[in-house]
TrEMBL record:
Keywords: Glycoprotein, Immunity, Inflammatory response, Innate immunity, Membrane, Receptor, Signal, Transmembrane, Transmembrane helix. Its main location: membrane. It is a single-pass type I membrane protein. Residues 65-209, 400-544 form the TIR domain. One of its GO terms (biological process) is innate immune response. Pfam families: TIR. The keyword Ribonucleoprotein does not apply. Belongs to the Toll-like receptor family. It is found in: Endomembrane system. The chain crosses the membrane at residues 14-41. This is TIR domain-containing protein. GO terms for cellular component: endomembrane system; plasma membrane.
Length: 567
């Protein structure tokens, strides 16, 4: 009956329809929940915006500025709230040569007014909007909504009113903050890391609040400028010199403009730029440099500039496509960074540096790899050579104090409890003959080095039992113990190794495969069923009592016997 074909009993169309409806419901529900969680405040802003448009509201200029700054911050963070009310407020409103009135949510917002109305009124009635950023506040919807409304003034009135105070490192990967640092970097201030820098910070914040954001930009394009000797504005962030007739730049002409981040020099008549034109930090902090559409010369004079580009972090738009150079007046342009500068390089010096660098990298990488992989191997070899250096030789083990030294993962509470509460009881307390065990957590003297404890335990025990789990098989302690147990085979011709597979481990180990073939009885596995446990314990007692040499297979025994006869 069980082989009867029941497919004919199922309505394939109904099953397919139910499957499609169920999958659609799960996908739609999951998508709606995700969108609602991520874009809640975005949707809220769009909803209010469309509602205002529906009622016929239009953009209007802000009323007269009642406040200098509207400060938006995480009011749910007691520490931030106290810092704003007790420190920021005092420094800007009460101290300094000119008071700067602030608009604060916890002090100036009328109770009972909707959040979006309070935010809109505060931003519209203030000259600037200061975002006191922390990691927690940067993730809130209130921050995003306030940022939308502050940007609305830029759209409605062409006024950039945004200031950012980084109280904590936040939004490190934000494209908005990266762009803002390039265009108007002074509008972003960071809380100093040292108390000594705080006076400078407060003075800088007052200056940023007083001046308009627009004064941090300078556009001198299309002015037919032929010479630029120096840039003397230390607070300038962006300088546009594009579409002029500049043929030469003086050495260090940006030395007095350490704050400059963006420089446009495209569409000029520059033929050569020396390395000394753009100095390195701290005199030069350029982030973006526009150079396309200039008649650069393809010569060794450009090598210094190429080296400067490689050493700096400056971004040059179109460097690999539009920044061309010419070998002669009528020649075809070629990409400047692809010009063959080999003739300008000292081949012998370059080869020597290359060899030294490659050797250093290879040696360092090899040493790091060997140290990571073979740490315990090297530790064993080091102790072995140290013993040889001091004249120690192999010696027979003292009289066996224990029948078995049990090594296991003492950092695993379950394994440790199993060994102490089950294995110990079965071998020491039960059975017709007690088998004394050596256990790390019970018998090792405290304060003794690991390798000394391991050596003494293995030498003073007839057998060494490895209680294997997947985690323990990956540790260095397991490998070191295995080396020391094999040392007895080399020194005394005694195989003392037993393996108890508490979990499947080292399935692809060549050592375990070979051991199963030569002395399979020395590897026992924890049974999968409780009914087999009595047989397991009896088998384990037998394996512990007899010598490993008697358990080797006939193949190995014949080989070993033949070797002895030949000797």
């Amino acid at each position: 009956m069980i082989l009867f074909d029941f497919d004919q009993c199922v309505n394939d169309t109904l099953a397919l329809l139910i499957s499609i409806l169920t999958s659609t419901f799960i996908i739609v529900t999951t998508s709606m929940a995700t969108v609602a969680h991520i874009f809640y405040w975005d949707a809220s802003y769009v909803l209010h915006y469309l509602k205002a448009k529906w009622k016929g509201y239009g953009s209007s200029a802000s009323p007269g500025s009642v406040y200098d700054v509207f400060v938006t911050y995480d009011t749910k963070d007691p520490w931030v709230s106290e810092w704003v009310l007790e420190k920021l407020r005092v420094k800007l409103e009460d101290e300094g040569d000119k008071a700067l009135p602030l608009c604060l949510e916890e002090r100036d917002w009328p109770p009972g007014t909707p959040l979006i109305d309070n935010l809109t009124h505060s931003i519209r009635c203030s000259r600037k909007t200061l975002f006191v950023l922390t990691q927690a506040y940067a993730k809130t919807g209130v921050f995003r909504l306030a940022m939308y409304l502050a940007h609305q003034r830029l759209l409605d009135e062409n006024l950039d009113v945004i200031l950012v105070l980084m109280l904590e490192p936040a939004l490190q990967h934000s494209h908005f903050l990266r762009l803002r640092r390039r265009l108007c970097g002074e509008s972003i201030v960071e809380w100093p890391r040292t108390a000594a820098a705080e006076p400078w910070f407060w003075q800088n914040l007052r200056n940023v609040v007083r001046v308009d954001n627009q004064t941090m930009y300078t556009n001198l394009s299309y002015n037919k400028l032929a010479v630029v000797k120096t840039c003397i504005s230390r607070s300038l962030k962006l300088l546009n010199l594009a579409h002029n007739q500049i043929a030469q730049l003086s050495n260090g002409f940006l030395q007095d403009a350490p704050s400059l981040k963006i420089l446009f020099l495209n569409d000029n008549k520059l033929a050569v730029i020396n390395q000394t034109t753009f100095l390195t930090k701290p005199y030069n902090n350029l982030e973006t440099l526009s150079l396309h559409n200039n008649p650069f010369q393809c010569s060794c004079d450009a090598l210094d500039f190429i080296l400067w580009i490689e050493d700096s972090n400056v971004t040059i738009p179109g460097l690999a496509t539009y920044v061309d150079c010419y070998t002669s007046v009528n020649s075809k342009p070629q990409v400047m960074i692809l010009f063959d500068f080999d003739q300008c390089v000292n081949d012998t010096l370059a080869l020597l540096i290359s060899i030294l660098t490659s050797t250093f990298i290879i040696v360092t990488t090899s040493m790091a790899t060997v140290a990571h992989i073979f740490y315990w191997d090297a530790s064993y070899v080091l102790h072995y050579l140290k013993a040889k250096w001091k004249g120690y030789g192999s010696s027979a083990s003292p009289g066996s104090v224990y029948d078995v030294f049990v090594t296991y993962d003492t950092k695993d509470p379950w394994v440790s409890e199993w060994v102490l509460e089950k294995l110990r009881v079965k071998l020491e307390d039960e059975g017709d003959k007690a088998l004394p065990l050596c256990l790390e957590e019970r018998d090792w003297p405290p304060g003794t080095p690991l390798i000394d404890n391991l050596t003494h335990s293995i030498r003073c025990s007839r057998k060494t039992l490895f209680v294997l789990t997947q985690a323990y098989a990956k540790t260095g302690v397991f490998r070191l113990t295995m080396y020391l147990a094999h040392q007895r085979l080399l020194d005394e011709n005694l195989d003392v190794i037993l393996v108890l597979m508490l979990e499947p481990a080292l399935q692809h180990s060549h050592f375990l495969r070979l051991r199963r073939r030569l002395c399979g009885e020395s590897i026992v596995e924890w049974p999968r069923t409780a009914a087999a446990e009595p047989w397991f314990w009896q088998n384990l007692r037998n394996v512990v009592r007899v010598d490993n040499q008697t358990m080797y297979t006939s193949t190995y025994s014949q080989y070993f016997t033949g070797s002895q006869e030949r000797e």
